[in-house]
Amino acid sequence: MKIKEITLFTNQLTEQLYFYKKTLGFEISKTSIRNFTLQIGFTKITFEASEQKHIYHYCFLIPSNQLEAAIKWLSSRLDIIKIEDKRIIQRFESWNADSIYFYDGAGNIAEFIVRYDLKNETAKKEFDLSQILCVNEIGMPTKNIREVNQKLETELNSKFWKGDLESFGTNGTQEGLFLLPNNEIKKEWFPTDLETESSPFYGIFEIGSYLYAMQFKKGKVNLFDKKKV
Q1: CA-to-CA distance for 153 and 126, rounded, in angstroms?
Q2: Tens of pLDDT along 105-128?
Q3: How far apart are CA 197 and CA 55, in angstroms?
Q4: Residue 156 DSSP class
Q5: Contact, 108 vs 115, CB < 8 A?
């Protein structure tokens, strides 16, 4: 699975624009009073103005040999979240992956992840924005993982990956994942105290040879369109 486009909602659009344009240094491809859009690797991400505050967890994939370089680059721009007040790298043994976490301009939890199984090393020694490959994960908190996973498998033809169907599961592939915490059990996004809220988003996802336009709202999956790539 690849996350080709995603739209997230925020009541702090100005702060979010400043974060991506000034703090991280991205070029903004489109901006208006209601939204702005930027290209991150093969993913187009849009932030849309909302009256309501929403909490998201999303993740960026970087080359598997660039974690230390990315830490150096990122730590010169913002505070990387400390885990258990002592470390910044989280190792996921069953995923063969390492992650670091930070807050975006609206207070959402964002992440850089390296997935060693993808073998996507780069020859570059220094880290820069061009090495962010895509939006790799999007959180989909729900009260019923089994139901949401079944909907994804039936309507998007994406498959359950790892975890379980009771407390925390994942659907998709290492190139793109839906994170499925049960927000009655997993009440906070690791490694923070941010609530696992079922925040709405809209996206276009490439799965197999098709593009699927899908909305996640109030903990439910709604498929709008499907077309051949």
Answers
A1: 39
A2: 999 999 999 999 999 999 998 999
A3: 6
A4: I
A5: no
In angstroms, the Cα distances linking 186 to 32, 110, 143, 145 are 36, 18, 10, 12
Map residue 56 onto helix, strand or coil. Answer: coil
173: Cβ contacts below 8 Å, ≥ 6 apart: 1, 159, 161
What is the SS3 assignment for 162?
Answer: strand
CA angle 157, 48, 61 (to 5 degrees): 50
85: pLDDT strictly greater than 90: no
Count the residues in the chain. 229
Helix (H/G/I), strand (E/B), else coil: 49: strand
Q: Count the neighbouring beta carbons within 10 Å of the beta carbon of residue 85.
A: 5
Predicted confidence (pLDDT) per residue in 39-66, tens digit:
999 999 999 999 999 999 999 999 999 9
Q: Cα 142–179–26 angle (5° rounding)?
A: 120
Residue 59, both tokens? 């993740």
Task: Tell me if the bond preceding 191 is cis, omega within 30° of 0.
Answer: yes
Phi and psi at residue 13, in whole multiples of 5°?
Answer: -65, -45
